[in-house]
Known about the structure:
With about 290 residues, this protein is α+β, with helices and mostly antiparallel strands.
Amino acid sequence: MINVNKLKKVKSNFPVMVGKGAISKKDCEKLIDEIRNAKSFDDLIQGGRNRINKGSSNFKNYLKKSKLSNKLYKQFNSQSFYKKVENRFKKTFKDYGWSNAYLPSKFLREKFTNKKLMNSKELMKMLGKTYKNPNVNLDIDFSVSRGGYRLRPHRDDVTRLYNFLIYLNDIPKKNGGALSIFKKKTDMKYRKSFKRFPGISELAKVKEFTPSKGSVIFFQSTPNSYHGVSLFREIKGKKRFFIYGSYALSKPVVWRYKNVSYLPKIKKTNKRMLTSSHDSDYLMREVG
Ligand SMILES: [Fe+2]
């Protein structure tokens, strides 16, 4: 359904590619109808985003009834498509210097990121002690947001390699809900640490993408891949329909920038949260 070779490189401080009209308008309409007709959603997060998540029984039922969603899922949930995405990034961003230190050996079609609430101890146990020899899997959700949805600037989960967004409807600028790309005001790739949630005053906006029907954004989830969504206002009942996905390792990604490695450190907390809410820093490995 999506041709990764048609994606275009965006001028940014980390690897980002976009495709306008990557999905036909007709297909977008069908996908919206499928999400709209969903019997139930798995969760409600980020102030107004309803999701159907890979891994739930609800997701399986949804795919049974939703022909086009199932087709799209099958395309993304394959080793061959993952390889296409990876190769496209490697070729397009050779000079950017970021890569993952440990390449995954197997593509696991059934695996997905746990959506249970965990404290940091439980999360660290799940992630394991060694970061070597990871496997890779697709995570994906079918989403619809209502007014109130927003996402403060952040970097994604420590297991993410590549993330992608598929927008199914046009969102007028005045409705908000745009995806912004940020960089640190002092955009150095060699730094002691990359916070997961930098303060807004530490960041400068690089680019803003207003969701348009059939457009897609792919980006590499490097330690500096800061992005967020501005407050979405629901005007005349217009919701924001989209699909979010990523290729994630079974272990945290060790990122390399040229000759330097960055390892993630999860912040300790007793609060039980989704993996996507846990704070973590990417720390430069001291070379002794
Ligand atoms: Fe994100």
